[in-house]
Specification:
The complex is a heterodimer of chains A (88) and B (299). By secondary structure, chain A is mostly helical. Chain A is built from four helices and no strands. Classes of the chains: A mainly alpha (88), B alpha/beta (299). At the A-B interface, helix 1 and helix 2 of A face helix 3, helix 6 and helix 7 of B.
């Protein structure tokens, strides 16, 4: 009975993980967009007033790390997308 | 809360003199408690009152205190506090001389008007007076000061909207994975909301005539008049209506029949003055006596 429960739990986790993969990818991409908007002066885009960025900075350490990570995949956005959607 | 009076206009039109006149008139003749504050780096008020002035308020007469805000000092104070917060989060960045990079912020665009906003907020919340009269710097910086809340709100509202989408997405993932909704507070959202509330309150002070009066000071010369028109248009876009356009430095024999329409709308006051400048309490009192009716009309 315990083995059946474990197997059922495993199957449930697997489905849940598959169901949230794309959502998680969307979530991370939205966080990227948020960081990009806050730090847009870094990349020459129209930027919020300086105090808006400065006062958000203490909350955005993880976002800055995410942005740095994003630099690695910036050259191949399509391959990133395809790998998330399990295409190819 | 005190009612604010702002005087703005082209450099040299007599903003500081009229700010001093209005402050003295209200304090002496209306028996109202008045604080006159200069946000103009030119600091003309000490010359007008003929006393040294600084950040510490100085009593000129009963009911009237005058002070000059050092905007540079507010800038440095703000940059230091922002740097300290950033440094405490990004400690590992000290290895790349973070201090040196943050020092350059004092030359960044937008910092000067933000320092003015901070000084204004501090004054508005701290001082108990019937009236706070602000002598503003010349047009460019003064307009950026009034524009900052609106500009910040455009960005903050967009960021808050995006943040809300992010949180909904995150909550959905948590719900699927854990099978229940996890209540997690987002510090960024809370910060954004606090800032939105702050700028909305500032904007409501600037836009509401019961809370603040804005006088545009001008002179009867084409450059000053054109700038007045420009100021009115820019303020109109921010939803701020001037309480009056005050025509200053009009020679007693000056013919105003060639004045453009905005000078004949009836909402402006006209101060006819002799050519000499109004300096010292006696001269200010004389000016008030000569123009008492006009000053009463500005209420």
């Amino acid at each position: 009975m315990t083995k059946v429960k474990r197997a059922w739990q495993l199957i449930e986790d697997l489905f849940k993980s598959q169901a949230t993969d794309v959502l998680e990818w969307e979530y991370i991409e939205l966080e990227h967009i948020f960081s990009l908007l806050v730090y847009s002066s870094f990349v020459g885009l129209p930027a919020p007033p300086l105090q808006v960025t400065l006062e958000l900075m203490p909350y955005l350490e993880n976002h800055l790390i995410l942005m740095m990570d994003k630099v690695d995949t910036a050259e191949g956005p399509l391959s990133d997308l395809f790998s998330q959607l399990n295409i190819g | 809360m005190p009612r604010c009076v702002f005087l703005l206009g082209k450099g040299g039109v007599g903003k500081s003199t009229l700010a001093a006149v209005l402050a003295l008139y209200r304090a002496r003749l209306k028996n109202q408690s008045v604080r006159l504050i200069s946000l103009d780096p030119a600091h003309n008020l000490s010359d007008i009152f003929q006393v040294p002035l600084g950040e510490k308020p100085r009593i000129i007469i009963e009911n009237l205190k005058v002070q000059q805000i050092d905007v540079q000092k507010w800038m440095h104070r703000y940059i230091k506090s922002a740097s300290d917060k950033i440094k405490s989060t990004y400690r590992y960045l000290t290895a790349v001389n973070l201090d040196r990079h943050l020092d350059i912020l004092q030359h960044a665009p937008g910092i000067e008007e933000y320092a003015m906003i901070l000084a204004y907020e501090h004054t508005y919340e701290k001082y108990i007076s019937d009236y706070l009269i602000f002598d503003l710097p010349p047009t460019g910086l003064a307009l950026r000061f009034f524009n900052l809340p609106q500009l910040s709100l455009v960005w903050l509202r967009k960021l808050a909207e995006l943040r809300s989408t992010i949180i909904k997405k995150r909550d959905l993932i948590t719900q699927i994975k854990l099978g229940k909704k996890r209540i997690e507070r987002d510090k960024i959202s809370r910060h954004l909301q606090r800032e939105i509330d702050r700028y909305v309150s500032l904007q409501s002070i600037f836009q509401n005539r019961k809370k603040s009066l804005l006088y545009i000071i001008t002179n009867p010369d084409p450059l000053a008049r054109n700038e007045t028109e420009f100021i009115k248009i820019r303020l109109g876009k921010l939803g701020i209506q001037p309480a009056a356009v005050i025509l200053n430095k009009v020679k007693p024999d000056h013919d105003l029949s060639d004045s453009p329409d905005h000078m004949q709308t009836g909402e402006q006051a006209i101060f006819k003055t002799a050519s000499q400048s109004v300096v010292g309490l006696n001269a200010l009192d004389d000016f008030i006596t000569q123009n008492e009716q006009i000053l009463a009309g500005l209420d």
